[in-house]
Amino acid sequence: MKGFKYIAAAACCVLAAGSLGACGSSSSGGKQTIEFMTMQSSGTPQLKVLQKLTKKFEDKNPDIHIKLDPGTNSNQNDIRVRLAGHNPPDIWATHGWSRDRYANFLEPMQDRPWAKRLKPLGKDVYKTKDGKFYALPADIQVSGIMYNETALSKAGVDPKSIDTWDAFQQACTKLKSSGITPIVSTPKDMGAVGDIADYILPGIYSQSELKQLKSGKFDSKVYERFSSMVSQWAKDGYFNVDYTSATPDDISRLMASDKAGFYFRANGSAQLIESYNPKVKLGMMPIPSDQGKPYFSTGEDMLTFGVSKTSKSKQAAIKYIDFLAESENLQELVNVSMNDSALTGVKSALGQFQPTFDYWTKQQKTRTVPFFDRTYLPGLYSTMSKSTDGLITGQLTPQEAAGQVQTAFENAKSKKQ
């Protein structure tokens, strides 16, 4: 893809072949082997369910073998190298980008028997303007600010009353005064920092400012409204004191022990928190906005799978995807996602977030907005994360953080020209 030269791509592909196993499908003794780059780490509930469902599929289809590749620490680079080398796996998890990054490489899915079951919420997330979409989504991520109900209650904070950033700041002050860490995050997980920016930015920009950004004009002054707020939170001591050294396990333990209030992270992160304290009480709330009412951020998540349009075993790969799309099978995947289901006929699996999710979406009719980076800053999530990290550590001023993102934005724009 962008930025790859032919020779470099070829060299990288050779390396990738050694580390990732066979490239694409193969046949041996009449049995087709389908390579599936799952992007799910070894031992995770998600990979275990895929392994269980795959065995079920292979028992019914003995002429097809599904080779499940576990995730690595460089999933996105792995698939980019494979695509640049023209040897993609037969199936891969599209990690949020089935339409906006991989559409040219994937087999369209809108004519599959299960396609009509896509929920209305998913239309804006997965479909192109002409109704095409390119992957099977098990779940759809609907994210807000996760909170510890017990911690907030101890500090006298009602999450239902937080509808502005001023109210959020007041809640953080109350938490800190009660000896509770207001916000947890860690630079050891790019997502834990990047999601702070990704969740907040949609409510920073006005509609006219979003149109300007979409047209290729980055106004650093607008971004500074976000960076200044996060910088002030850091100065006020709202983040965990061990931020620079903390691991995802460390901050999960803080949340699990009722010693932290807020966490800007997807609901799936609650699984680790609950592993430390099954009785922890968690909820989710929408994100305050400077441009109207609060909202939830929504988008494609990690349990979304597409088929390479150049696969030599395309029909077998599609047969496997159709199998996963069956309601009873898709339900098993959704159950380990802690998200809403993307297709009808499959129940959502938000766990203990279900009551607060239902309150905000059904009673309060809370709006949803797409993940900011995918719509307005594609390819810049890492920069958003690193610049936000600099704000929390104090290594970057709000102006410098905005400048970093602007530089990356301009560089990305110049590469497209």
UniProtKB/TrEMBL annotation:
- Record flagged with keyword Cell membrane: no
Q: Enumerate the UniProt keywords alphabetically.
A: Signal, Transport
Q: What InterPro entries does the record point to?
A: Bact_solute-bd_prot1, SBP, SBP_1_CS
Q: Which residues form the signal peptide?
A: 1-22
Q: Which GO terms describe its biological process?
A: transmembrane transport
**Lineage top rank: taxon:** Bacteria
What Pfam families does the record point to?
Answer: SBP_bac_1
Per the similarity annotation, which family is this? Belongs to the bacterial solute-binding protein 1 family.
PANTHER family reported in the protein's UniProt record: ARABINOSE-BINDING PROTEIN-RELATED
- What's this protein's name? ABC transporter substrate-binding protein
Per the UniProt record, the source organism is: Bifidobacterium xylocopae
